[in-house]
Amino acid sequence: AGAQAATGGLVGFQPVPVSTADTVVVPKGYKVQVLAPWGTPISGTMPTFGPSRSGADQAHQIGMHHDGMHFFPIDGSSTDGLLVMNHEYVEPRFLHAARYAGQELKSDEVMVTDGKRPDDDVLKEMNAHGVSVVRVKRGADGTWSVVADPHNRRITGLTPMEVTGPVRGTAHVVTKYSPDGTRTRGTLNNCANGYTPWNTYLAAEENWAGYFRNGDQQDQKPNLPREQARYGVKAGGMSRYGWELAAGGAEEYRRFDASQTGNSAAEDYRNEPNCFGWVVEIDPFDPGKAPVKRTHLGRFAHEGVVFAPAVAGKPVVAYSGDDARFEYIYKFVSARPYDPATASGALLDEGTLYVARFNEDGSGDWLALAPGQNGLTPQNGFTGLADILVNTRLAADRAGATKMDRPEWGAVDPRTGAVYFTLTNNSRRTEEQVHPANPRAKNNYGHIVRWTEAKGDHAATSFQWDIFVLGGDEQAGRGPNGQKLTADNILACPDGLWFDAEARLWIQTDIGESAQNKGDMAVMGNNQMLCADPATGEMRRFLTGPIGQEITGITGTPDGRTIFVNVQHPGATTSPKDWAAGKLASHWPEGGSALPRSATLVISREDGGVVGS
Ligand code: FEO
Ligand code: CA
Ligand code: CA
Ligand code: CA
Question: What is the share, in percent, of the chain residues with pLDDT greater than 90?
């Protein structure tokens, strides 16, 4: 209470210094617990964690590389609920540690022998991706645990899913698996998340393109289909993990060679990548229900999705960033109004997708990506709405949207309705490409942009924007009031972003593995989380993480007294030589000689107060 009185704002804790230690540090008066690390058993025969677990075991355990997450209270409880989280990708060295030990391997490298990969390795990798739904409860001693429950469920790279919205049933998504184009299998590279006003979870598909290769077009990139080329599907070579090389040749693995002539005519996999790049809706309270890919939110490298507060009688509005250099920020506005009694995911199947243009004078416009609008005509190569959505990036190019510095998470201020988006970095922006909304060339530190919709209406087609924070050290950085940053709040590469119920803005950082604790980034220490009060401009460092990780994913209980935060890829900075020598950069969280494991932090105040206050 004293600290809050001192600032007059929402941020009341004592800031923590930057850290290079292999541990999590939180402010004085706070406690932190590790929950649900990779490999925690949640279903089936509850297989315990171990270095030699099978691919089938992994389907009953928490996945790798925790990312976006949401706490769904059970009956409004702040001590009992379903924690739903994304697992963005895998680190094969750790996943297959028993057999990969002693080999000089990079953090994302897989072992290929005679052009083949073991089937069970591929299965394990696919099952370590996706989403976990797990019941968590706080015990009498204040400690949280994962409990066995019928809701507990893994959604993976193999889970059957529905395709809905304008792309459903079109030729774009006709596959061997779904000849009528209504279904697909799996979700991949689920980075940030979202949650709907009707209490369902959304998993975004970010860097899915790398999971495919197209063997038809060896070294002939100009000939790749545009719906592959514009997203970075590789011509030739091996996909990110080489799943198409699975020794047994099962169809669910072969499909990652997104080619025609590389397979028989009956196995034309060119449309498989069209089944990825969407927002996936999951009802955590209905474990029997197939996840749904909602195509009207567009196809790109969806970082996450965030809703404006839903108002009865008004459309629902959802914002989403496309995290790649020089890509765009989008919003979806539903055609039908929100009715709390009947609202469901069907609201996301009809409406308008817009892309943002930031004008140099501080105004902005939402450009509709719809047939006949903004140049999206058959003459210009867009045959209809489904074609526009499958080729969202090309449609946004045509419409004249503003190319941003890697849009990551968004958050909407519950008090003011202002929308905030992180722009994590863009080392390739040149002096000639500098624009007031992306104001720095070689933008290694990143920034946060903010806008207010015209007349406070989230469905409006214009807005006013400004820069909220410029990342950087004490010289280059700027805080919410334009003030210089200090040792208490320097930051780089903002990524995760979340408003709590009292309108504290939580900011998480993702300095890439190759840059962490080196050069200009050395002063930043390990990746961290800060807390800001947009009303006062106060911003303080709340948490620092262990070595090699990024802090990503945040949610809380309804009473604000517990927050959950994810630690992703600790130890990823281990060099190939050090891995071969058995020297790991991190042993977090177990310590000793343990393999590092992504995990969830449960953070609360020792006095039981509201976190951050
Ligand atoms: Fe998966 Fe854009 O961070
Ligand atoms: Ca991210
Ligand atoms: Ca990352
Ligand atoms: Ca990132």
Answer: 95
312 within 8 A of 340, measured Cβ to Cβ: yes
- How far is ligand 1, taken at its centre, from the CA of residue 206, in Å? 7
CA-189 nearest atom, ligand 1: 1
Q: Which residue is closest in CA terms to ligand 1's atom 1?
A: 191
How far, in Å, is the centroid of ligand 4 from the Cα of 406? 9
pLDDT along the chain (613 residues), means of 10: 56 98 98 98 97 95 98 98 99 97 98 98 98 98 97 98 99 96 98 98 98 80 87 95 96 94 70 98 98 99 98 98 98 98 98 99 99 98 98 98 98 98 98 98 98 98 98 98 97 98 98 98 98 97 98 98 98 98 98 98 98 98
Adjacent-strand bridge partners of 568: 550
Q: Which ligand is nearest to the CA of 496?
A: 2
What are the structure tokens assigned to 548, written together? 């090699």
Specify the 3-state DSSP secondary structure of 99.
helix
Report how far apart the first and last C-alpha atoms of the chain are (Å, whole number): 8
The 3-state DSSP class for residue 318 equals strand
Report the amino acid identity of residue 364.
G
CA 472 / ligand 4 centre spacing (Å):
16
Give residue 133's identity as a one-letter amino acid code. V
Tens-place pLDDT, residues 68-91:
999 999 999 999 999 999 999 999
Q: What whole-number distance in Å separates Cα of residue 300 and Cα of residue 122?
A: 25
Q: Which DSSP string do the residues of 179-245 spell out, in sequence order?
A: TTSSEEE----EEEEEE-TTS-EEEEE-S-GGG-EEGGGTT-GGGS-HHHHTTT-EESS--SS-GGG
568 CA from centroid of ligand 1 (Å): 11
Instruction: For residue 422, report the distance from its CA to the centre of ligand 2, in Å.
Output: 10
Q: Among all ligands shown, which has an atom nearest to the Cα of 553?
A: 2
Alpha-carbon gap, residue 532 to 539, rounded angstroms: 4
d(CA 552, CA 566): 5
Pocket of ligand 1 (CB under 6 A): 88, 191, 206, 303, 323, 408, 495
Looking at the CA of 191, which ligand is closest? 1
pTM metric for this prediction:
0.98
